[in-house]
Batch of 3 targets.
Target 1
Amino acid sequence: MFPFKNSRFSRLPSGFLLEVNKAPSPEELNSLLSRCNSERHPSKKLAIALKNSFCNLSILEEKTKKLSAFVRITTDQGLNANLWDLAASPGDYQREFLGVLIHHSLAIIKNKLPGCSVSVAAPPIALKVIENEGFIIDPDGIRTMAFRIR
């Protein structure tokens, strides 16, 4: 691993576990996105996205295995890595879960994809956490754009 600006996000609260590379079902992820007031995705397209992602990180309740937070990493295997569907259930641990996901995502990218620039599509609740991990919000006024394919 490597040092982060905010290393308090390297560990999860008691009762939760981090699962790497075993993606949740599209239904589980859409349920989490709904709880977070985020946009849901068509299940078939989401299944393809999860399968073709470089890495998927999930935070699960240890006892129930209920999905509490999620992010997926995509990459061109060269210059760029992107974090998508960053979400954490509202509640006491929401910001902490977001921080853990970002922290571990960056560690994976740094280890397996050194030199990649990293972008993240994030909900407003995550902006402070992202800044604390060293991201620059809209660098040089550059804003991301999205095109929804139906």
Target 2
Amino acid sequence: MDGKNLLLIGIGGASGAACRYLVGQALTTQFPYETMIVNIVGCLLLGLFSTIFNVVGTNHYIKNGVTIGFCGSFTTMSTFAADVYILEYNMLPLYIVGSVGIGLAASYLGELLAKMLLRKGGFST
């Protein structure tokens, strides 16, 4: 086991979990917007950072700390799954399609944004 990798994933994970908690505290509503928002933003960030790290050739410790650690703990599949069980049936399609569909679109948008930023910075994508 690589201790440095584990440490940076742990630091990223703690940061992501703290950010996830703060978003949840700021957006408490009947509809689980906080879960939907963190999952969509997490998808955007994962697409953005993964693309940047792959093009720039970032150190794998940093890449793992940000992608596995921060993005992994910021997003929350378990809460998404639990929310599905407590929502009223008329809200389920909006929540599921919104979370998954917009999440996939956000990931792709993050990749496009990263490529645009990298081109402006002189990197070929």
Target 3
Amino acid sequence: MSHMEQAIIAGGCFWCTEAVFRDVIGVSEVESGYIGGTTPNPTYKEVCSGATGHAEGIRVTYDPEVISYAEMLDVFLGTHDPTQLNRQGNDVGTQYRSAIFPLDDTQRAEAEAAIERANESHNGKVVTTIEEATTWYPAEDYHQEYWDGEGQRNPYCMATIPPKLLKLRKSFQNKVKQGA
């Protein structure tokens, strides 16, 4: 088995980004959580208030021999709107910001390059930030694998997630798991 790597990204509601990345080839695990804030061990309610400074993010464990970090970032930037500042659709606040949290200098350089690529197709309007990877706090258990369980009965998720999955399948056909 090859060496697994991790990526931490935030692109609005973590239920949505988690649902997308669970269907990406080479991804073995997706964990929803909080990053980039100042409150230790924040709760979902605290993060939703916007007062902690955290973003709702996902930590993706993946096989770089199957999908590169650069390709992961292209999928990320191509399946949410990286031009909306501190919001995705009806979710408004810094906790829904579009951000990449590189884990080393190589990932930082790749993040800068990915944003440049995204800017070419978004007329230079990408607002995705590159932020220091501060302490990662896993979200409460009921947020993990949300779309596969509760999410398909949640009207918000039913309105928001299928279009993102469609975008993944349409724009990144060769990056989607078989049967996903």
